[in-house]
TrEMBL record:
Residue ranges of every copy of the Zn(2)-C6 fungal-type domain listed in the record: 7-39
UniProt keyword terms in alphabetical order: Metal-binding, Nucleus, Transcription, Transcription regulation
Identification of the protein by name: Zn(2)-C6 fungal-type domain-containing protein
GO biological process: one example: DNA-templated transcription
């Protein structure tokens, strides 16, 4: 095809028709392909000229840099970390590996149908969606990573390829990916310094074992050594536990951390998602081997991470997996001579499983006759005894709800007696004590969440009969008990949120629990027939306003979705106080763990 001399150099090289629009200096083909449009004469004149070659190379490099930048944005990787650093380039590879392997694990689980213990790792808070990365799946750089690492595309995988992905290979791949995403020493030091005060809360108040042994992480040096030494080991569970500990730290970082100058391999949200994906992958692959106490502790930490993210369903999955493994280890039959660590892990697992099952309205995996549940702790151990009693009561609420067709109101009153007996076993100072400046943070936090948990059970027990009290005064007791529980939950929550060292402790489940308590108060306030506001009603509105302010503070400082959306909904509901809704005409919001809420004027 002879195009003549009127075609530009690029169109002649590509052997296509060169068409110029009116009053344009760039032809349509060059404009479409974003190529440089130059005449053939200019090319011939510049042949042999080094400056022309350099300019052409510069244009191509600029285009490649733009493509890499777009790819990095989709993967939430900082592009500036890719400049002239082959070592930090592995961060991009690590995120790609974890994204792809997570899909591989999901496909493998669905294909082999290995049971309910398997599940897909969900997206973390504000994490990049798979669609973002999928839109760049044909990018040359991503294809290069896929070919270099033998990664198969999710939609092209076959059963045979999944079978080839051996357990050992997946363990090595997950471990390498996690190690590539460990922050530099100075950035790691900063993260540990900003979260050090929360470590005792995780271990002492929440009964999580975040190190190799209980209380083994005592300062920044021991935490740093635990992470770095774990990454040097070849033990999958140890790598997973250190990754989850680091995930807890990253999750606890405030929004202000983004304003600090760091060289993290990715944004904090992307790192959090990657650490969880990697640890989840190592735990899942390792489940084909005999369980260990460390693997159970990893699942407990993973459940806490999901609860912090407002994902109780994923947390319930983790706890049920941990309970199954604990049964295989025989922890439910541990006698008095069993190590305290084993008894503590078993207690944490079965008690949390009961509370989450009650939360979802599901049957529990244990009953009161279960050998691992039937023996209560010593009466002098107040903390352990009340946690035991609350879990037993949660089991009774589950049984009532599962047999709601045959259970009458007398069953609810009987369970209420158990709650009152549980409350009477503890000294009054536990409920009415005011913390001082010397009170340890762990004590303040433990008492706060204990109050929330106790009165949450009371609220859950009486809530089904609360609104029935309007037409039937026989249920007025349940209404009063539900309202009292809501007030006490808010007071316990405020004791934590108003403390300067604890106000930003992240826990979406705790935020959600107190949000439901506030909603209970608002519903009752709006259901009152009298237009005259009593002293108690004014006090309840003040509690609602106080918890709304606390939720707003948490949502702004920690980017908590649950707290932010709950705060907005409570603000709109509070406008009904004067008898007329003053919010948006058509307000709609989806609150995690609660559902869709619509308000129409």
């Amino acid at each position: 095809l002879r195009l003549g001399t009127k075609s530009c150099a690029e169109c002649r090289r590509r052997k296509v028709r060169c068409i110029f629009g009116p009053n344009t200096t760039v032809c349509k083909e060059c404009s479409t392909h974003e190529s440089e449009c130059v005449s053939q004469q200019s090319v011939h004149a510049s042949k042999g000229s080094p400056s022309g070659d350099e300019q052409d190379l510069q244009v191509k490099l600029q285009g490649l840099e733009e493509m890499v930048h777009r790819l990095c944005e989709a993967m939430n990787v900082r592009p500036e970390l890719l400049n002239n650093s082959p070592l930090e380039m592995s961060a991009v590879e690590a995120l790609t590996r974890l994204q792809s392997l997570s899909s591989s694990e999901t496909s493998l689980r669905n294909t082999t149908n290995v049971g309910a213990g398997w599940r897909e790792v969900s997206e973390s808070r504000s994490s990049p969606s798979s669609d973002q990365l999928g839109s760049f799946e044909e990018a040359p750089l991503l294809n290069l990573f896929q070919e270099a690492m033998l990664i198969q595309k999710h939609h092209a995988q076959s059963h045979r390829n999944n079978q080839d992905l051996s357990s050992d290979h997946r363990i090595v791949t997950y471990s390498m990916a996690i190690k590539a995403l460990i922050p530099r020493p100075d950035d790691l030091e900063t993260i540990l310094q900003m979260t050090e005060r929360f470590w005792p809360i995780w271990e002492e108040s929440l009964n999580l074992i975040i190190g190799t042994e209980p209380r083994s992480i005592t300062d920044i040096a021991s935490a740093r050594n635990f992470i770095l030494e774990s990454m040097k080991s070849e033990t999958p569970v140890l790598i997973a536990k250190s990754s989850l500990f680091l995930a807890l730290c990253v999750q606890q970082l405030p929004v202000s951390f983004k304003n600090q100058v760091t060289n993290l391999p990715a944004e904090p949200n992307a790192l959090l998602d990657a650490y969880i994906r990697g640890a989840e992958g190592l735990i899942s692959v390792n489940e084909s081997r005999p369980a260990t106490i460390d693997s159970l502790e990893c699942l407990n930490i993973l459940a806490k991470l999901y609860l912090n993210m407002g994902k109780p369903r994923e947390a319930w999955h983790c706890v049920r997996r941990a309970l199954n493994s604990a049964l295989l280890l025989g922890l439910h039959n541990a006698g008095e001579t069993a190590p305290h660590r084993q008894k503590a892990v078993w207690g944490h697992i079965w008690q949390l499983e009961r509370h989450l099952s009650a939360f979802f309205g599901l049957p529990s995996a244990t009953t009161d006759s279960h050998p691992g549940v039937s023996t209560p702790p010593p009466a002098q151990d107040f903390g352990a005894r009340i946690l035991y009693d609350l879990a037993v009561i949660a089991g009774h609420i589950i049984e009532r709800n599962q047999n709601h067709q045959t259970a009458n109101y007398a069953v609810t009153l009987a369970i209420d007696q158990e709650i009152q007996q549980c409350k009477s076993r503890l000294p009054p100072g536990w409920w009415n004590g005011i913390p001082t400046a010397s009170t340890p943070l762990t004590t303040i936090y433990s008492l706060g969440i204990l109050k929330i948990g106790f009165f949450s059970g009371q609220k859950m027990l009486h809530l089904p009969y609360m609104l029935k009290s309007s037409p039937d005064n026989n249920y007025e007791y349940s209404r009063l008990q539900a309202l009292d529980a809501g007030r006490e939950m808010i007071k316990g929550y405020q004791a934590v949120r108003q403390h300067p060292e604890l106000m930003l402790t992240i826990c979406d489940l705790m935020d959600f629990q107190v949000f439901t308590a506030a909603v209970v108060l608002v519903i009752d306030l709006l259901n009152q027939p009298s237009q005259l506001e009593t002293h108690q009603e004014a006090s309840d509105w003040n509690l609602v306003h106080d918890v709304t302010k606390s939720l707003k503070l948490v949502s702004e400082a920690m980017e908590c979705t649950v707290a932010g959306q709950a705060q907005h909904l409570l603000e709109h509901l509070s406008t009904f106080r004067d008898g007329a809704y003053k919010g948006p005409d058509n307000y709609e919001v989806i609150i995690p763990m609660f559902g869709r809420v619509k308000i129409n004027r």
